Amino acid sequence: MYAGYDTTASVASNAVWQLAKHPEVWDKVKEEQAGVVAEYGPVFTEVAVEAMVYTEAVVKEAMRVMPPLAANFKIATKTFGLAGRRIPKGWMVVTATGSTAQYFNDRWPMDADFRPERFLTGKAPDACQDMVFGLGAHTCIGSRLSLVENTVVLATLARGYVFSLVEDGSRVVSDPMPRPENGLPVCVTRRGDPRNQ
């Protein structure tokens, strides 16, 4: 079972990678954070985090483009039928949440573009279209914690760090979580560091 630490770290790393590839999005996160600090101060209070609407949308989009787990594995507790096939009790059932739920639906058909704005429409997504955390009784109990943790990580970085893409040709591998094949191709430096000039 993969939970908490690994999946949160995977989402944070992939979000940083996406932000380094999309500096215009990173600028919006930094702008939002400047506004949050101006209104609520530098402490991550509940109301301050709730005001980080765009930053949270970036986290959700990072999970949509590259879900922390490409599939869920369950054991059938009873024999059942699915798409005309008989699935016997005890068989392992794999749901490919990474591709089926994230790309193949009416909300964002085959859309691998990184656009956090898609989560700012005000419309609640159909649960079947957004399965990063599972569904129903088997929904991840840490889903809200994961969103808050990753939002705070990005907010912290936005308040004091600069990203630069080292290379932009890394292939994504999964073992079992998706990651750039040769490590995160991003240089993260503190604002004001002479290397940023």
Automatic annotation (TrEMBL):
GO terms for molecular function: heme binding; iron ion binding; monooxygenase activity; oxidoreductase activity, acting on paired donors, with incorporation or reduction of molecular oxygen. PROSITE patterns: CYTOCHROME_P450 (PS00086). The keyword Oxidoreductase applies. SUPFAM superfamilies: Cytochrome P450. Signal peptide: none annotated. Keywords: Heme, Iron, Metal-binding, Monooxygenase, Oxidoreductase. Its cofactor is heme. The keyword DNA-binding does not apply. PANTHER family: CYTOCHROME P450 (PTHR24305), CYTOCHROME P450 12A4, MITOCHONDRIAL-RELATED (PTHR24305:SF166). This is Cytochrome P450. It comes from Ostreobium quekettii.
